[in-house]
Give the backbone structure.
Amino acid sequence: MLNEIEEFKAYTSPVIYKADSKRDTSYLGRFTFDSLLEFRGLSRVLTIVARGYMFQNGEADIDLARRALCAWCSMPEMKKATPKEEWQFMTDFRDLHNEFPELVDNHGNGWYFCHIKNVYKFVKCYPDRVSKVAVNKADLLGKKYNRIWYRKILQLQIPLFDSQTKGAWVQNFDSIIADALVLGPLKDTTLNLSEETLCKINLINTSDTPDEVIVLLVQYYLANKPDDAEWVVLPTANFDMYFGNTNFSKKWLKKIPESIIIRDTFGFGVGRYKIVI
């Protein structure tokens, strides 16, 4: 969460599909089943990908970032889909393979679509190496998921101010690129807390939330706190993805003492927090 460069590599490099035990979710890469099935945390993932390519040559290249997003999201056109007119959005970006060979193959399979298929194949081939919950959730990543992702790719291409856009806070490439422009190049904001702060956390933390989780929250807060505000947006789903499970959001977060972290779950439609130690 602090090293965005490593985060970018996790979303664009090959994933090693393995599991040393039923609790090992390495085969999911830097995702959880909830993030894959419900697109939780997808906005941050896409923004990291966009920023990784947008600033490759120094100055912001919006067109390069948009092409990279298309390549990452690509999937072959569905066999029964009606042929598209030139003005209609497409989902198959195999023509970008030469420019982004790491993001899309010459058959139109983008990085994300390949990852979905590989997770499904791994769980189906090695059900004895994963949990029963994983087996059940992997079933949802089968063929029916193709149509869900197909529709998602089309939605992502809808212009930000399109009059036909339905629903509030719809994800799209325009908003992702706007965020990328504001945030700038990827950064490594890794920092060390003082021994005094670490001791305070250890003494105050009376919950079963691991100290290292609270330490990361404090580090993330300090690295992302604006000069003119005391609250920082908490990308909960992405913290789940970082820890490789949903314990962070469903178990640990709510138990952290308010003498360390105060949460605001209703602030302007997003979850925010501030540290008070």
